[in-house]
Design goal:
By secondary structure, this protein is mostly helical. It has 6 helices and no strands. The longest helix is centred in the last third of the chain and has 35 residues, at about 110-145.
C-alpha cells in the first residue's frame, strides 16, 4: 500500500495515457479490426443500447455514492463508486470493441441540428470524459492506497466531488448523444 501511495500521480498518469490511447486509437482507426474476434451483427447493433443502459445505471450509482458519503455511509459509498467504475469499464470495453470494428456512427439528422446541437453536445461529452478519466483514476487510487480514516486529509474528497460531477454530466450527455443517434434520427 505504501508503494502505491507514493506512486498515485504516476499511476494516474499511466492509466490515463493508456485509456486515452485506446480510445483515440479505436476512434481514429489505429487499432486494426482484424485483431478482434468479429461478433454477429445483432451483437454489434445491441452495443449502443446496452451502453446507454450502462450509462443510466452509472448515473444512479454515482448519485447513490454521493448521497451515501454525505450521510456518512462509507461502505455504501465505496460499493457505489466501485460499481460505477466497473460500469465505466464495461462501457469502455464495449465502446472500444464496436468502434474498432465499425468506426464512429454518422449522425443521420438534419445538418443544422448536427452543426448546432449534436456536435457541440458530443464535444462537451468527450471533453468532460477526457477530463474525468484522470480524476477518477486519481480518486480511486487514493482510496485504494489509504486507510479510510486518512482519506479526508488527502485530495480524495475534493477530487472525488469533481470527478463525480464530471462523470454525471458526461454520462448524461452520452445518453443524449445516444438518443440523437439511435432514437430520434
Amino acid at each position: 500500500m505504501n508503494q502505491t501511495r507514493a506512486r498515485v500521480p504516476a499511476l494516474t498518469g499511466l492509466l490515463t495515457v493508456v485509456s486515452l490511447a485506446l480510445v483515440f486509437g479505436a476512434v481514429l482507426g489505429a487499432i486494426p479490426p482484424r485483431v478482434l474476434p468479429h461478433a454477429p451483427e445483432s451483437v454489434l447493433a445491441a452495443i449502443p443500447h446496452l451502453n446507454a443502459a450502462i450509462s443510466a445505471t452509472a448515473i444512479v450509482t454515482i448519485v447513490v455514492g454521493v448521497r451515501a458519503i454525505r450521510n456518512g455511509r462509507i461502505q455504501r459509498h465505496r460499493r457505489s463508486m466501485v460499481a460505477t467504475f466497473g460500469l465505466f469499464g464495461a462501457f469502455l470495453i464495449l465502446y472500444l470493441y464496436r468502434i474498432t470494428l465499425e468506426g464512429p456512427t454518422d449522425f443521420a439528422g438534419p445538418a443544422a441540428v448536427e452543426s448546432f446541437v449534436y456536435l457541440p453536445l458530443l464535444a462537451v461529452h468527450i471533453l468532460l470524459a477526457i477530463v474525468a478519466i484522470p480524476l477518477v483514476y486519481y480518486t480511486l487510487l487514493l482510496a485504494a492506497s489509504h486507510p479510510v480514516a486518512e482519506l479526508p486529509e488527502t485530495n480524495h474528497p475534493r477530487a472525488g466531488k469533481l470527478a463525480a460531477g464530471l462523470w454525471l454530466i458526461s454520462f448524461s450527455l452520452g445518453i443524449v448523444v445516444y438518443a440523437m443517434l439511435y432514437l430520434v434520427w
